[in-house]
Amino acid sequence: MNADRSPPLLTLGPRVRKSPFFDATMAAGAKSFTNYNHMYMPTSYGNTTDEYWSIVQGVSLWDVAAERQIEISGPDAVAFTQLLTPRDIEQCPVGRCRYVIFLDDAAGIVNDAVLFRLEDNRFWLSPGDGDVLLWAKAAAAMSSLDVTVHEPDASPLQLQGPLAPRVAHKLFGELAVELGYYHCREVSLEGIPLVLSRTGWSGELGYELILQDGRRGTELWDLCMSAGAEFGIRPACPSLARSVEGGMLSYCSDITLNDNPFTIGMDRLLDIDKPQDYIGKTALQTIAREGTSRRLVGANFGGDPVRPNEHFLPVTVDDQAIGHITRCVYSPRLEHNIALVNLPVEYALPGTAIDLDLPEGRRAAEVVSLPWFPSEKKIPVW
Fold it and tell me: Right CATH number for 293-371 from 1.10.287.3510, 2.40.30.110, 3.90.1150.10, 2.60.120.260?
């Protein structure tokens, strides 16, 4: 592959939807987009390194409306949501969130999501890229449960970075600092209906402002930018470097149907033997007894800053392919390259020497535990 070639352009058309914040992101200088969940999502405002530093040192605003919400409601909403995930969602109080995983019948991962419990019998699922809405609708149609599954008018903005609580405090007052990690609340800002949550995909302190009136996207964007002006807020996008550093996994890259929750280290968040049935229960219980054959781990490697990979790349030992790189990137804070690698369990121990076959050439690497930087959760006193 020619590392100097220009990336292909993404053309605009009615088949792919625009977010309520699309016009605001264009006015803010968005330079590139990707197609995520059948929507345009910004991927750069021109300098991803500057955006990275705004996320880890300051405050940034992201259009992630492509995180399409799936609403589950009705008399049997709890029973149906239990069917979808190995996590016991009855233990999630109203106003709280949970990280959940959805499985197929062989315990392959259909997707991961943040679950919001907005009412006793009303949930939102916020999954990664993939048609989870259609999967959930099919599951509902095959069940005998009284439940409604649909996509609500709900479009998230993410306010992320160590100064995010300062901006949120200007917008929402004391609620912004009193709201616990993975808590959520339905609120109104200047008459704009929102769900405010202490969630996000940066690994830093942050919030999601989930707009519930798609006509008011630019208005909400401008309110956030105005409140953040004194703190140097800047528009940004989900950061590849920060997500890899934090071990925050990306569906279709780090997580696929070929992986199970033990592969990606998420078994600690599951209630495998909960009394309620769920899709993939028998297969997952078998894996829990017998163990998984592969693990997703980290790898450190040197050399010039690596170009992010466009597809899986081989991991070798003694010239034999044993696994693959899911994502790789140069870390500005660590000042060296890092990667997420999917390996057989016998090679997944920290300190193991492996080789990464990159377009730039083979690089020697060492397996490390995840994450390089844990998520920030506690808002400091100021």
Answer: 2.40.30.110
